[in-house]
Every structure is written in structure tokens, then in C-alpha cells.
């Protein structure tokens, strides 16, 4: 859009996916003069995010954001997604995951000599053109199904959330935009499901497998599973339990099973299994804190880092060994992603437990662990704000630290997401 000043700001593509890098170009500026570009986004939860960067226009009065180094602002190096991942929350409640697949309404504004000049608005999409969304309440399931464009059956990926619960629509919709049927599957804190992450029957996920295999959009095509945090633990457990899953992706996952979280804060009087199978605990599990010997941390305005408590639990080698997930049973490749500054739990250590077990058993499929320096617990898809490093946790009852810094979180997301897509393409849809 061209302003009365003659300055023009354009954004391409015109209908981008959330993970697309954007071509933001400013033209018609006075040569070698300062230009500030601001971005403002409203998401599907009505939260508002903002970022900004100052540049110097080129000799021709033009400026291409992807190749220009900011002189100041919310990020500091040339980056086509810099104005996106460096957005900070200015209105609304911070959260650690994107459970809503509504378009991200984003406005870019160029300012010259302190006055608003060119501007452009784009709707960035989780669900691209032709992707359909259907709420699923069959057979006791609480899920949302995203079907890719086209009539042909497609491989499907089941996406499960972490300890925040809910229906993880964002990643499932984005997978559908890349050609996979995506089932965003809740297992607690949604609909009629339990409010606690405790005693969740694995049979529930078997029901989801059968539902997908019957659906005309999948029709027996291969299945993958992807989860984050406790959902990453779950993804490994599901892969080791059900051979229907031919590929497993775990973001900040765990190779050992942990106790359930009953929603009574960090201190719980009774330890319950997170997962059950055939009426009993799916396997032995470890507790991150022994409430009988450790006091509840004192109330504090500072977010609490839980990583030390999880590391303490791993010191019981016998218990940790018994709680290892039998990942060698997984019927396909495994890709794990961790942040080396994860303060929610020690995901690099927990992921490496799974890697070492796969190596010991000479797993017949490829297995990879991507561990990113400086990144924390929130490594999502590129194009999303990477600035949330702590938030109130619904089950802990207090603010918890995620760790990491925004630049490293964004770099981890940008590097890992194409590898996730490549794994699913090569394994589930090789032709």
C-alpha cells in the first residue's frame, strides 16, 4: 500500500502460511534516511503481539527486510522472519503452545521521519487454501481433523499436546497445509476428558488410530505421531506400543515415563501414573519430586525452573532405568528436538536416554536428536513469536520457566521444522 508520502510497503506472498518467510519491501523512501518498520499481530485467542526494527533506506530509497540488518529493534540480524519471531505480547495471557488454528492477522507499517507512511495487512494461515476443519466427537474422542486439499487419501499425523492439555490445532492444521491429514488430539482438559494428566488410557489413542484408518481422507495410509513435552513422552510411548505409527517426532520430549500430574499444584500427596494400558500403569514411572521429602517451593513472583527437580529424579538410576520407554519397538524413524537451555525439564538429557537406548538395540530405522544451544522448552513452528520464556501453568498453579532466548528459540524452530516435514514426507509419503 502506498501512502501520501509516496512510500510503498508490500508483503509477499499475499496469502502466506504461518511458517512462510515473508518478503517485506519498502520503497519510495528518501535515500539513506532512517525507516522504522513495525509489526502488530492479533491471534485467534485475541492476544496482541508487536515488534519493530529501525533501518537505513538504500541509495535508491528502497529497503528489503529479509536482507537488511536492523540498526535497532526487537531483533538484530537480517532475517525474513525477524519481525515475526521477535514479537512480544502486549495484550492477553501468555501461553506456551498454539492450540488455535485461526489466521494470524498481521499488519506491517513503515514510518519515515516519525510519521506513518506505507502499510500492509496479511492473514497468515495455519490452514491453507483447500484445507478443511472438522471437529471430532466420535467414539469418545475430542479432536479436530484437518484434511488437505484434494480428494486423494493422504498419510496422517496425530498431534498430541503437552501438560497444558487442550486440542493442539495449530500444528495439525499446518501439517495439513503441507499435504498430511492432521488429527489434533486432546487427551485431557478438553470436552468431557479428564482435567488432570493422570491415568490416561492408551486405548483412547488406539481408538484414534482406528478412526483415522477408517476415514476416507486417510483410508489406510501410513500414520505418524508428533508431540511436545509430555506429549513428546507420549509420542514415544505410543510409537513403542502401536506399530501403526510409522514415524515419531518429539519436541522437547522424554525417553522415560514420568508420574501423572493431578492438578494439585507441584506437591501431590499421591503419585498416579500418567498413562495406563489394559487397566494398569502402562509401565514403571518416575516422579520429578518426592513430596514426602521435599517442601513446596516458596511462593515467588519469579517463574520456577523445574529442570533441577527432574535431574534429581534421574539420580535414582534403577528407577530411571525401569521407566525407560522401549523405543526400540517403534516401527519407523524417530526425530527428537530439544533446547539446551530448557528450564521446564532437561529435554536434552531426557531425549538422549531414548537415543542411547535406540543405539543399544541397533534400531533398524534412522533416529536423530537435534539439540539447539540457547533454546529453551518452547520450540515450535517458524513464524510464531519466540519470546515467551515463562508463563502460568494450568496444572502447577504458578508461573514456570521455559528457558531459552528468543533468537535461539526462533533459530531452533526454523532449522527443525523443515526436517520434521522431510521425515514425514520420506517415511509416510515417499512417492
Produce the secondary structure layout.
Elements: E1 8-12, E2 23-27, E3 34-42, E4 48-56, E5 63-64, E6 72-73, H1 82-85, E7 88-91, E8 104-112, E9 115-124, E10 132-136, E11 143-147, E12 156-160, H2 169-177, E13 181-185, E14 200-201, H3 203-214, E15 223-228, H4 230-241, E16 245-251, E17 275-277, E18 280-281, H5 307-314, H6 317-322, E19 334-339, H7 347-360, E20 367-372, E21 390-393, E22 398-401, H8 406-428
Describe the structure.
This protein has 431 residues and is α/β, with parallel strands linked by helices. The longest helix is centred in the C-terminal third of the chain and has 23 residues. About 1% of the residues have low confidence. Helices cover 20% and strands 27% of the residues. A hairpin with a 2-residue loop joins strand 17 and strand 18. The radius of gyration is 22 Å and the shape is globular. It is built from eight helices and 22 strands.
Number of helices: 8
CATH H level of the largest domain: which superfamily? Alpha/Beta hydrolase fold, catalytic domain
Most strands sheet: 8 strands, mixed
Structural class: alpha/beta
- SSE order: EEEEEEHEEEEEEHEEHEHEEEHHEHEEEH
Roughly how many Å apart are the termini? 42 Å
What's the architecture of the largest domain in CATH terms?
Answer: 3-Layer(aba) Sandwich
Shape, please?
Answer: globular
- The CATH topology label of the largest domain is Rossmann fold
Give the total of beta strands: 22
- Percent helix range: 10-25%
The total tally of domains equals: 2
Radius of gyration: 22 Å
Strand order of the largest sheet: 10-11-13-12-15-16-19-20
Q: Quick check: average pLDDT?
A: 92
